[in-house]
């Protein structure tokens, strides 16, 4: 939600150091299953260490704490590994963690189209990437020199994230969606992905459970102009294009997770979206005093600083009065 700080937003952004790739990979897998958890929570549960990072045992412990199982499958042949990975992604529709680069780094595979795999790699910027099978195979294979230094066997370990809960939504990260999120102008959508998802889960429902669903595209076709025009009218100092972009982002995320609006809830959905974009407008542009209330035409950090200063002054006055008495 809007009250969260950046440190608690599990969107798509690079890891801040070299040893938290495991928590980030699991975080990305959970987001693909409709769960928003920050990497710091996972790292704390997994007891990630700056020296040793996070192994599969620690990641399995963290996964269980978030109602998932980390299921290991090992292959010794590349083609067998490819088929197992594709089955999990297409048939089971679960994200898969791979330990790559000679078992030094964790990545998350969230989809496959043809011969291309959709990968979230927290060492990259942007983190959403596309690998061909040749590229993924080259990073995935591991030469087990501990078993045989002269002729080490090749291993392909995958770790499927199997939810214990009935996942109500699962992300469909197609190639087109990955390319869209990689654009510089859409960086903020990727960074604050979880906020959009959490808000949409309050407004929408999974398509499979609704008898008379309305897609977000159809809903905005009917109601977007009314929402935008009224917010612009009442605020008076906001660009229409900014509001339209926020609504476009909400539509993009809803379509990625297959979320729709029940026909019986259109009034509430219109009110919720109007409130959300109004809150965004106030956060961006601030607001003047209304009916004698408010902090003046100050928004964002300036407004927060002023509010804190005023509150501190009030508290100091109370303390001084008590001392006098």
Describe this structure in words.
Helix content is 49%, strand content 16%. The strands form two sheets. Strands 1, 2, 3, 4, 5, 6 and 7 form a seven-stranded antiparallel beta sheet that branches. The longest helix has 25 residues, at 300-324. The protein starts with 20 loop residues before the first helix and ends with a helix. It has two domains: 6-176, Alpha-Beta Complex (Cathepsin B, Chain A); 192-285, no CATH class. Helix 2 crosses helix 3 (56-65) and helix 9 (216-235) packs across helix 11 (266-285). Mean pLDDT is 87; it is low at 1-7. The protein is α+β, with helices and mostly antiparallel strands and 325 residues long. It has helices at 21-32, 39-46, 56-65, 78-92, 133-140, 175-182, 187-191, 193-203, 216-235, 240-257, 266-285, 300-324, and strands spanning 68-75, 96-100, 105-113, 116-120, 128-132, 142-143, 154-163, 205-206, 213-215, 259-262.
Secondary-structure map with pairings?
Elements: H1 21-32, H2 39-46, H3 56-65, E1 68-75, H4 78-92, E2 96-100, E3 105-113, E4 116-120, E5 128-132, H5 133-140, E6 142-143, E7 154-163, H6 175-182, H7 187-191, H8 193-203, E8 205-206, E9 213-215, H9 216-235, H10 240-257, E10 259-262, H11 266-285, H12 300-324
Antiparallel strand pairs: 1-7, 2-3, 2-7, 3-4, 4-5, 6-7, 8-10, 9-10
Helix pairs in contact: 1-2, 2-3, 8-10, 9-10, 9-11
């Amino acid at each position: 939600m809007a009250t969260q700080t950046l440190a608690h937003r599990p969107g798509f952004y690079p890891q801040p150091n070299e040893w938290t790739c495991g928590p980030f990979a699991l975080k990305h897998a959970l987001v693909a299953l409709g769960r928003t958890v920050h990497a710091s929570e996972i790292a704390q549960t997994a007891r990630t260490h700056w020296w040793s990072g996070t192994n599969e045992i620690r990641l399995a412990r963290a996964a269980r704490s978030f109602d998932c199982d980390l299921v290991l499958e090992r292959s010794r042949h590349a083609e067998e590994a490819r088929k197992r990975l594709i089955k999990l992604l297409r048939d089971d529709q679960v994200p898969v963690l791979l330990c790559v680069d000679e078992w030094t780094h964790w990545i998350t595979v969230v989809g496959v189209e043809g011969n291309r795999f959709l990968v979230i790699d927290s060492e990259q910027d942007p983190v959403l990437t596309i690998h061909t099978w040749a590229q993924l195979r080259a990073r995935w294979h591991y030469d087990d020199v501990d078993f045989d230094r002269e002729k080490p066997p090749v291993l392909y370990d995958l770790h499927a994230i199997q939810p214990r809960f009935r996942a109500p939504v699962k992300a469909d990260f197609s190639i087109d969606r990955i390319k869209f999120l990689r654009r510089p102008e859409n960086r903020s959508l990727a960074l604050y992905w979880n906020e959009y998802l959490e808000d949409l889960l309050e407004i929408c429902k999974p398509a499979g459970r609704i008898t008379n669903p309305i897609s977000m595209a159809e809903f905005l076709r009917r109601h977007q102009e009314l929402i935008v025009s009224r917010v612009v009218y009442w605020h008076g100092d906001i660009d229409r294009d900014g509001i339209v972009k926020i609504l476009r982002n909400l539509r993009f995320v809803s379509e990625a997770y297959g979320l729709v609006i029940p026909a019986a809830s259109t009034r509430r959905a219109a009110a919720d979206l109007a409130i959300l974009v109004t809150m965004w407008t106030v956060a961006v542009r601030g607001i003047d005093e209304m009916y004698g209330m408010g902090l003046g035409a100050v928004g964002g950090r300036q407004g927060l600083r002023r509010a804190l200063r005023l509150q501190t002054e009030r508290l100091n006055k109370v303390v001084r009065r008590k001392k006098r008495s």
